[in-house]
């Protein structure tokens, strides 16, 4: 249920908005295959009645869609979905939200920012916090490796020593797997993407947390999934809502983080984990447990994959958050027959894997210094968490919970501010923020914002934030007084 | 039109084969969405008549499909496609051919082979032929790069200096593009995969050459495309057949190599290139020109993208074939508005790109030694081509043409031998061959085989090949005399 992009609000919505709403309705039906190429569109009169708009609004919308090539007009007959559908565009499939609360807005702003820019809204640590020295040493070691390591393709599953090492690391979280149950990928995201290809069909329903990592929305839209969500609580998904949604919507798949939830920093409790798995069994639900923040934990939290034994839970991870985001390497752990099919799919869609980056990751992880690096990173993050939490509270920005670990603080803004307004204001000063609704399918996080504490330490960030909070507040005040 | 996996041949086909054929027919209809979840299957009697098999064969097939969870039996009502479709499996969607002529067979055999094994059937040079020294130097240089280069995410389009360098290289082939029209990917395959996601819907028709690179089949099946093919001639696709297929099947997309065609080694002629583009315009066809063998050319051949100006042609490339397959890096060149949408899609499905491998590729390409490396590589390949061609002729294996450049020789085997039999025999001696039908949608290349000359120089390969040719010949002789 993709939330309708533009909400109608009676008299205040202008004609332009209504035309856009009609266009979006049709685009979504086409994207969701409710209207297939060649299909006749509803008559102008019928759609006008259904959507409670004037016939001229529908005519206007249809004519613009003809202009875009999405539909065709056959005079005397009606309107039809274009046969050669315009190239699929994610931003078309996604709700045409204001760019400030579009999932791509934040990805692209963060990735396009200059290396030195401040990005409290991004999902990674500053490069200087990562295993830079380890990477340097690994590069030097690799420069002396044999020629096949430097120039040959990797094996279908990927580096066997790295897969063995991954199983050892998973065992520390209680997840038993053998190396043949691990397939390396180019990234955690690629792992989820391959799994979506393997597990779901266009139109299938997929369940996510609300809020959840915004790229899950984008990824699932690329797969044309129907997305539903359940509210997230400090100990996991709201289990009543979870049970209800399974019964009601019969999702095929649930994608979640367990150890450190993105964006809330919450931790799944054992009792909720157990209930999730019982319900998953009852409703034949497959679960992808995205564990890319595993290395940040101080004490291991429950993993769904540990309870389930990799039966209906698939465990994925990567090394981008603690080691290096420049050397892309992720993995999937699943039952052997699924790994077999996923390997074919990986070969078909990206051929081999990145042998060199897998070797590099292996080098860094095997290096005795990596554990030390992670330990000092965790201390540094804890300090930043305490520090930033206090400073944000001073601005009236209140954390929803104090996370046990990780880099994220999920905060409520003061005075019913709209986080999108604040983000827009901050961007003028080249500070990239992450407004709450980017993470929320139900768009119920208007007053929330995710802060990456490692990127919020600079005084300038706090200054801009302060300004960005004061400005919309002042504006809101003006508008309110103007209206009143 | 996926070729039927198992051919019925009257009395010789056993009952098991007939049951498998019926199962495969149903699986393909489900995979191709001809039968959607919940749909009722044809009655046992009707399907038996249609497929010219007994009703008990259909009953048997339906029961096994129920066992697999693909369909459900509703007693008193009939059989239905399962609502929760079993996880999508490529090997299910692909024809269940004998493993020896399954596209995955060759990919996986080649990738799983030990580094020292001989793989005349694989699509890459021995690692020792690649830019090993350049990679070593680049790794040492990178170990001194700044921290962001070593640990940060890449920009959405990927390294700007590398994109600039790619446009300069493309200009040498007459293709004009600016760096904003280039998006880096993890590999050439990933580039095509993103394009398929962007350009086609499940069920859309895509045109390929016959023969063509076998992974195009696997990739397109992963996208649930309907695949059609046109015969390839020494100067490009058979243009009559091409025109006919466009008119008849209205494919949305054509995927081809121009400079050095895989597997035939043929070169597109300017006149055919021009005709292709005229027809593409007439039938609104988009073309992906896969140019990953560009660096092997002695004299540049025509590129479709050069004539077309990146309007309806998309140009892709990578560095796996001449530089290193361990450092994955490919690119797409297309019109700006497509690059914009592709970038969103790349972020959604794999987040950033491999910054480190892009920097490594840039280092190697900028290194003055790379041109020298490529020049000596071309000389080495020319020699191997002459040498292997002569040796194969001695065994009665005759090249279809003498390629101008590259590593492939597309050859006809002697005495109507089935290349799959020869490949199977050679595999017992751990030599991986590439039988012709792996490349042929129409399965019309039974008597052909692709040889990678760089991997066919070892005397042991020729010995095994000789044996592998003699053995099936002897067997064929025995069978013939037994039958006669």
From TrEMBL, chains A, B:
UniProt-listed Pfam families: Aminotran_1_2, GntR
Keyword Transferase among UniProt keywords: no
All copies of domain HTH gntR-type, residue ranges: 16-84
PROSITE patterns listed in its UniProt record: HTH_GNTR
Keyword set includes Transcription regulation: yes
Keywords, alphabetical: DNA-binding, Pyridoxal phosphate, Transcription, Transcription regulation
GO-annotated molecular function: DNA binding; DNA-binding transcription factor activity; pyridoxal phosphate binding
InterPro entries on file: Aminotransferase_I/II_large, HTH_trans_reg/aminotransferase, PyrdxlP-dep_Trfase, PyrdxlP-dep_Trfase_major, PyrdxlP-dep_Trfase_small, Tscrpt_reg_HTH_GntR, WH-like_DNA-bd_sf, WH_DNA-bd_sf
Gene3D superfamilies: Aspartate Aminotransferase, domain 1, Type I PLP-dependent aspartate aminotransferase-like (Major domain), Winged helix-like DNA-binding domain superfamily/Winged helix DNA-binding domain
Protein family per UniProt: In the C-terminal section; belongs to the class-I pyridoxal-phosphate-dependent aminotransferase family.
Protein name: GntR family transcriptional regulator
Lineage of the organism: Bacteria, Pseudomonadati, Pseudomonadota, Alphaproteobacteria, Hyphomicrobiales
